[in-house]
Design a protein that fits this description.
Layout (H helix, E strand, L loop, with lengths): L12 H8 L6 H14 L4 E7 L6 E6 L6 H8 L21 H7 L4 E8 L2 E8 H6 L8 E2 L6 H10 L2 E7 L11 H18 L1 H4 L7 E4 L2 E2 L15 E2 L3 E2 L6 E6 L8 H7 L10 E6 L2 E7 L21 E7 L4 H4 L12 H23 L17 E6 L2 E6 L4 H8 L5 H13 L3 H11 L12 H18 L4 H9 L8 H5 L7
Parallel strand pairs: 1-7, 12-14
Antiparallel strand pairs: 1-2, 2-6, 3-4, 3-6, 4-5, 7-8, 9-11, 10-11, 11-14, 12-13, 15-16
Amino acid sequence: MNSQRSRHAPPQASAMIEALRGLGYSTATALADIIDNSITAGAKTVSLKFTWEGKNSRVIIHDDGKGMSADEIDKAMRLGGKNPLDARSENDLGRFGLGLKTASFSQCRRLTVASTGIDGLHSLRWDLDVLASRTDGGWHLLEGPFPELDELMDPLITAGHGTLVVWDAMDRIVSENFNLDNYHELIDRVESHLSMVFHRYLERGRSRFSILINGIPIKPWDPFLSDHPAKPWHSPSQAFNSTKVEVECHVLPHKDRLTPKEFENAQGPDGWTAQQGFYVYRNERLLVAGSWLGLRSFGTQKPWIKDEAHKLARIRLDIPNTVDADWKIDIRKSTARPPVNLRRWLIRHAEDTRTRARKAFIHRGQISKTSAGSTVTQAWRADHFTGGMRYRIDNEHPAISAVLEDAGSLLPQIKAMLRVIEETVPVQRIWLDTAENKDAPHTGFSGEPPAEVIEILTTLYRNMVLLKGMSPALARQNLLHSEPFHNYPELIASLPEQPK
């Protein structure tokens, strides 16, 4: 028989909840957590209503899901009413049994939940001011009805199902000097976040699922620009062994390949650089929106960081809700860390995607091969060595080789000039300018009038045909295989059959 002595040590309700208010939710992430419950309850429509009355402002969330019985709403309103270790439905978006409460407490001091289930309408309320006023430290969950909310209950009574969540006394939102303009900005941030987090649900169409803010449906934000014709590459979906963990890699189009509106929309809530990396989904609900998950290249110690060169790389990663503990999913569903056995697999996919994204960024989305798939001769090459890398001019490029072959006595001076250019490439300046301007420097005659490109093409074409003895067809073919002229096939085709 165990003789170990013990004592009952329940937490003080008011102190405990005040501590839970600091978990780090934003208004948008808190609302996303509540919408998770609506989706799990089979809701087709979730309606958010933001009302402005200064410190008496209110947020109301209504869904048309199956609703809750008396026992279910009691369990839903208790902290720790659900064990995260319990088995769950594969479509369940919850885990800890805390989301509804901790998300709401992070924003307001009074949380009311009403629901119509199989046994009628039930309502319960947490009021933090009531808890603070009680000297016994108890967990006093207030029971309805609440007459001041009678009008809000009508949709639940009429439909016979559904749930209503009401935030009052929103001290964490309507703070001192918070005004109506700030409230509108908050609503915009909420819309932007929810359109991203639930985009795969919203893409099913209004008949399947929709979220409304003050009566207006939210449009989904697709991080991957699916089916955009200018996307340079994306991979098919691939699963890890026999698991339900799947990865799909994407390289987005360069700015030059998008309209201004497409570019602005595709950057996401936090901008192009911040939105790169892995997008981790659990049951199609987005948990992590752009992160390299602490991964790094093989043989290196420093994890990848978000930078301009890889801002076109986005990778969709789907995990089932049975691996939450392995992935260290937190209460706010905002962080994830891949287990050790998956990291090498993820790194291989990420390195491939990062390499392709870097090329698309550097070449401004231009193709590096001809339409026939032949490799294009580039004017610069990167030589890797033990101490790092150097940038060298490729002497095989037609424009370079033509000068070197005809240099005669000037050959040493020309080679010396090219070496000086190689040794003084302003790599750091280019990198800083790129980071500050958030775009790649203009290269490849980008933005230049066709007349300037034609002038240089004509000079090279004349040299190949008249001095080197190439046929016009071969000369055009060489130009089509040379950077940056491979991007101007129409201009090359317009060159005369016999140069003058």
